[in-house]
Design goal:
With about 150 residues, the protein is α+β, with helices and mostly antiparallel strands. The chain has 3 helices and 8 strands; from the N terminus they run βαββββαβββα. The chain has an 8-stranded mixed β-sheet with strand order 2-3-4-1-5-8-7-6. A hairpin with a 6-residue loop joins strand 3 and strand 4. Helix 2 packs across helix 3. The chain is globular, with a radius of gyration of 15 Å.
Length: about 150
């Protein structure tokens, strides 16, 4: 049976990223993680915050919608091999992403240093499975994965 690794990060949607960054740094001691700087320039402007040892990570992104602030996807980390098996497991269970598309190998997103797969439960709660075995996965998937900045 497949198992999930630890929680990798939790997505948080906020209406004001600069204000949120100041608060999370001042109150929780979280600071931007430079390894994820390339994700700040995308359409969602995601900033990955981490504590000093990297054990706690929050992905902060801006969403101006009235109901947008709050927790987004919870991301679990797995090995590259488990990542491939999770794709097949989710596809076999006919799990969908937020757009209603059934999960498949072409659902994988390439974030340059990790690959991820977003999906929702039957109630619309978002989840993400992440693997940092990036190079191995890109080779195994043999897909023309377009880098994303989310």
């Amino acid at each position: 049976m497949l198992t999930l690794g630890k929680i990798d990060h939790i997505h948080i949607r906020v209406k004001d990223v600069p204000k949120a960054l100041k608060w999370y740094q001042r109150v929780l001691g979280l600071a931007p993680d430079a390894r994820y700087k390339h994700m700040q320039n995308g359409p969602h402007g995601t900033v990955m915050l981490a504590n000093s040892n990297g054990a706690v990570r929050l992905a902060i992104s801006e969403d101006k919608a009235e109901t947008a602030s709050g927790v987004g996807a919870i991301a679990f980390v797995v090995s590259g091999q488990d990542f491939l098996e999770w794709i097949d497991q989710l596809a076999g269970e006919r799990v969908t992403n937020a757009e209603g598309q059934t999960i498949a190998r072409d659902s994988v997103r390439d974030h340059r240093i990790f690959c991820s797969l977003f999906f929702v439960d039957p109630f619309g709660n978002p989840f993400e499975i992440v693997s940092y075995d990036h190079t191995w996965l890109v080779g195994k998937l043999k897909l023309n994965i377009q880098p994303t900045t989310e």
